[in-house]
Structures are given as structure tokens and as C-alpha cells.
Amino acid sequence: MLKLNNISITFNEGTPDEKKALDNINLELEQGDFITVIGSNGAGKSTLMNVISGNLMPDLGDVVIDGEPMLHLPEYKRSAFVGRVFQDPMAGTSPSMTIEENLAIAYSRNKKRRLRLGVTKQRKGMFKEQLKTLNIGLENRLTAKVGLLSGGERQALSLLMTTFTEPSILLLDEHTAALDPARAALITSLTEEVVRNSGLTTLMVTHNMQQALDLGNRLIMMDKGQIIFDVRGEEKSRLTIEDLLHAFKRIRGIQFEDDRVVLG
Amino acid sequence: MFISIFGAMESGIIYAIMALGVYLTFRILDFPDLTVEGSFVTGAAVAASSIVNGIPPITATILAAFAGFIAGCLTGVLHTKGKINPLLAGILMMTALYSINLRIMGQPTISLLQETTLFNQLGSLWSATGIDAFLNNILSTIGLEQLPTTWAILLVMIVITIIIKLLTDYFLKTEVGLALRAIGDNKKMVRSLSANTDLLIIFGVGISNALVATAGGLIGQLGGFADANMGLGLIVIGLASIIIGEALFSTKTIAKATLAVILGAIIYRIIVTLALRIDFMETGDMKMITAIIVIAALVIPRVLQARKENRRRQQKRAQLDQQLRGSSDA
Ligand SMILES: Nc1ncnc2c1ncn2[C@@H]1O[C@H](COP(=O)(O)OP(=O)(O)O)[C@@H](O)[C@H]1O
Ligand SMILES: [Mg+2]
Asked: How far does the centroid of ligand 2 lie from the alpha carbon of residue A173, in Å?
């Protein structure tokens, strides 16, 4: 599945702003793993996502997906394997185009794009079926411009656009953080449903500790560019927020501190 | 009067092809491409020197389109691979094309007056059909005295431009075209959905300049010459056409937007022609008129909007005043 070997990356090396954002990261995901990632602000979570997606080149180490080394592939080629939903609801869709056109662009993700119509009658039917699973009525608005949708609707559409072609890896980087609580809850439950139904191998960054505990079969905690805590299965399901805070204190010798982290 | 408007429509429908090209870069790709000032001339230069060298006009016109495509692709490469800002990439290409165009022509101007152009050929085929006589009969019965010498150019160019428009519309709905359209909106998303944005931009700018060069090749044949300076100010003409079209017609769908651009190009020509009929205007004033049209089209809607807002606010205030007065009376 996904394998990260000895990944390190340092920003602004040799300047006063030098920052070791990832420090010898090793991580192996099994097929169908759903991993939640927590960690204080600046821990390197987004950097890790960017290294996997190909948006950033690590200084050292390898990224291997389905046995294939990824580092020599440009970002656009890697995204045939890696699907992403961004934190910003504006980032995942094209506002001046319609819902069906956005879906058509996403549908070509792991196929060759040709000079044939992107939205056909047959595809329309399929898009409609897919939109129905979101349960927010988008199936009746196929020809509406995406710019007219609310942030939550856009994020739901982004989630669908990223997942319905079943990438090898799904990366979610605080994809509910920009939404109000009700919409965030909706997107969270949609995410849970999509991942459960499709069995996608998923890495989800969240700053909500309770959510990190509730979702997925494995949890990793990052700090200062390192993975400092990694629990899975049975052990994870028994974990509480107190346990997490204790673990952090034990490992780092200091209190976990991040004003953004939602404790529960 | 009628004859000059007729002439304006003739060249307007050809310039519409150029405007479609500019629309592709400026609106679809969000890539303000100035290459067009050079590639338009390249189109005319390639067509003219091919025709002078005995190549059939239709082939010459296709060669012109191809030359424009190459020029546009180079600008795309400068931007995507060379990381040069779009405006600068276009200016660099336009500057280089000036020299290249002189090389293609071998002299600053080529005259086609002694040559057979696409439009001469068309005219001789056309005169056999008798359509001219028919249409001119209608015009003279409604009392027009000066009649156009031929309808061939206008009618055939309408057909050609509409075919190009329909092909463009179709292209923008294909899998490739959809990805291209999303680039102008959200490059990050396009990349994350595994489309090669660099290649799409190169291709898009190439297609745009192919259209512009086609228009250049046709305008050269219509006017009977190619000149190294005939592209000057062209980008503003293209923008004027787009802005006029968008101001007057709906742009809700791609098909409507491209139609609006075509109509905008024709209306622009007519406005300029009429403006030049004013006594103190000279041909050299055309560029200034164009600039004024663009400025007016950009500024007037804003001013109108601001006025509307102002009026709305004043009404609200007046209402509130009245309510307050009403309650204090009571
Ligand atoms: N492109 C960059 N250039 C310089 N520093 C960066 C860059 N991206 C991230 N960083 C720094 O690397 C560290 C990790 O950032 P990030 O991965 O975004 O953290 P988070 O865990 O909050 O997502 C931070 O200190 C951040 O300031
Ligand atoms: Mg982050």
C-alpha cells in the first residue's frame, strides 16, 4: 500500500528561518487502513500530506504506493493514485463550471483525457446516482454553477469528486476545519460513510481529538516533524482524550498545547 | 453609409475569429496573452508569402493557422517551463515574432493585389450562383442606391466563423476542454485531479494563436496585403470585442459566450466605422477610439452600478427618516 521510508524535509536550510518540518518519518499503511493524524500546530502534518501527494519534494527518503516508487512522478501523475480534499472549500472545485462538469473533470482522474464529450447522457445518470449518496439534494442541481454552492456543499462535492474514482490513497487535511459546526459534522459523517463503503486507504488530519478517536482504525500523533505516538485496533478503540494528553506529556515531558485543538 | 457598414461586417466577421482566440486565453485560461499582436501578422505573412510562391490560398491559410499554433505553444512553454509571467512571456514572443515575420516576408510589406486569394476564388465561384443579383435586387427595391459588389465574402465568412465557433464550443466540452476551462479557475484542483496543467496551457495558448493567425491570414487576403505592423493594437481590439459582446449579450453558457464574442467583434467594427465617418476623425484615430470604447465599456457599468447603489441607500435613508418622523408625531 503506502510506504514512507525515512522521509526528511527542512525548509529554508542554512538561514535563520531553518525549520525541520519532517524528521525521519517512517510509516506503512495497510490496504483499507483509516488513519487519523493529530498534532499541534506546525507539527508537520500538512507537510507530510504534501510529500505524499507530490506537492513537496522531500530532501531524503522514499514514497512508495502499491509497490511503485513515487518520487520521480510529477504531482499531476501522482494524483492518479492519490486523492485529496483540501481544507479550503474553494480549493477542490471549479466555481465557474457546473456540478456535472466538475464531476466530469474528476471522473477523468485515472483515465486518459480525450477529445470526446466530458458530460454524456450515460455519465449524467451515473453522476446523479453518486450525488444522491451525499443526501443534500445536489442530484437535482447538476447544471448549477459550483460557485453558487455553500462551503459545506462544495466540500461534500469535493469529497465525492475525490473518492468516486477510488484513488489508492485518500488524503484529508483538516477538510472540515473551515466549516461551521453543523456542516463540519455533516462532512465528517459523509467522510465516515464514504470511507466505510469504499474501503479506501485513508489518512485524515484533524485538530479535533474526539474525532480522531472516533474515526478510523489507527491514530498517529505528530510533533516537531516526528511521529511520536502510534496506536491501532483494539488499543485505539479504548483510548480517551486523557490518555492522549498523558501520552504526549510522558513522551515530550511537557504539556500538550495548541489553542486550536478541540478536546472533545 | 450602407456600403461602409457592409464592409465593417465583412471584416468584423473575420476579426471575430481573432476575438475567439483572445477569448480562449483571456477568459478561459485567465492568461493575458499578448502574443496575438505578433501571431496575427505571422498568419498574414505566412499566407501572403505562400500565395506569392504559388501555394493554393486554402493551403496557405491552413499554414498560417499552423504557424500561429507554434507561436502560441512557444509562449505557453515560456510560461510553464520557463516560469515567465504570462504578460511578459507574451510580450517576449510578440517582440521575437516581429523579426520572424520580417524574415518570413523578406520585406516589410507583401502585396497580394496581383495574386489569386481565397476571396478572388470565392468570388468567381460565387458569381455563377446569381445570389448577388438576387440579394441586390431586394436591396434596390427597398430603395438603396449603392449596392455591395459581392455577398460572397460576408456569407461565406459567416459560415466559416460559425463552424469555427461550433468546433470551439465542442472542444470546450470535451474531457480535455473541461480540464482546460478549470485551469483558469483553479489550477491546484486540476493538478490534484491528475491533469497535466502545463501541457494544457501550452495547447490552449497554441489553439488561441492558431485562431488569431487564421484571422490574420484571411484579413491579409481580404485587404490584399500583409504588413509587419498590421498587428499593432490588436489585443485591445480583441478585448473590445469581448467586452462589448459580454456587455450586450448573455454569457451563461459557453455557446452563448462565444456567440457574444463574435457579435461583439462585428459591433466593434461597425462602431469604429461610424466613428470614423465623423468629419474631424482620421484613420489614425482608430486606435484611440478603440481604447475609448474599452475604457467606456469597463467604466460605465461600474458607474451605473454605483449610482444605483447610491439611490438605493438614499431611498432607505428617506424611508427611515419618514418612519422616525411618523413615530415622533404619534
Ligand atoms: N513552504 C514552506 N516554507 C517554509 N516553511 C514551511 C513551509 N511549509 C511549512 N513550513 C513550516 O513547517 C512546519 C510544519 O508545517 P505544517 O506541516 O503546515 O504544520 P501542521 O502540522 O500545522 O500542518 C511549520 O513550522 C511551518 O511553518
Ligand atoms: Mg496543517
From this structure: 7
Kindly tell me the number of DSSP H helices and DSSP E strands found in chain B: 13, 2
Interval A48-102: pLDDT, tens: 999 999 999 999 999 999 999 999 999 999 999 999 999 999 999 999 999 999 9
Cα-to-centroid distance, A7 and ligand 1 (Å): 15
Which of B178, B181, B253 is the best mutation test for A, with the most CBs of A within 10 A? Answer: B178
Task: Determine contact, residues A91/B186, Cβ cutoff 8 Å.
Answer: yes
Burial zone of A112 (CB within 10 Å; 0-12 exposed, 13-18 middle, 19+ buried)? exposed
Interatomic CA distance for residues B152 and B127, integer angstroms:
8
CB contact under 8 A, A94 and B186: yes
Q: Which residues surround ligand 2, an ion (CB under 5 A)?
A: A 46
Tens of pLDDT along chain A (264 residues) come to 899 999 999 999 999 999 999 999 999 999 999 999 999 899 999 999 999 999 999 999 999 999 999 999 999 999 999 999 999 999 999 999 999 999 999 999 999 999 999 999 999 999 999 999 999 999 999 999 999 999 999 999 999 999 999 999 999 999 999 999 999 999 999 999 999 999 999 999 999 999 999 999 999 999 999 999 999 999 999 999 999 888 888 888 777 776 666 665
B245/B133 same-domain check: yes
Does ligand 1 come within 6 angstroms of the Cβ of A41? yes
B282 belongs to a structural domain: no
**Domain A2-81+167-263's class?**
alpha beta
Amino acid sitting at position A52: I
Residues B181 and B308 in one domain: no
Query: For B276-299, how does the pLDDT look when each residue is reduced to its tens digit (9 = 90+)?
Result: 888 888 888 888 888 888 888 888
Q: Does A143 touch chain B (CB under 8 A)?
A: no
Same domain? For B229 and B271 the reply is: yes
- A75 interface with B at CB cutoff 8 Å: yes
B189 shares its domain with B252? yes
**Do B147 and B235 fall within a single domain?**
yes
Ligand 1 test: best mutation among A7, A15, A37, A47, most atoms within 8 Å of CB? A47
Has residue B213 been placed in a domain?
Answer: yes
Distance B54 CA to ligand 1 centre (A): 64
Phi, psi dihedrals of residue A32, rounded to the nearest 5°:
85, 0
pTM: 0.91
Burial B128-167 (b: 16+ CB within 10 A, else e): eeeebeebbeeeeeeeeeebbebbbbbbbbbebbeebbee
φ, ψ of residue B218 to 5 degrees: the values are -75, -40
Could you tell me the strand order of the sheet in which A34-39 lies?
A82-85, A169-173, A201-205, A34-39, A218-223, A226-232
CATH classification of the domain holding B36:
1.10.3470
What one-letter code names the amino acid at A179?
A: L
* B177 and B319 together in one domain: no
- B129 plus B264 within the same structural domain: yes
Give residue B315's domain range: 287-330
ipTM, interface predicted TM-score of the complex:
0.92
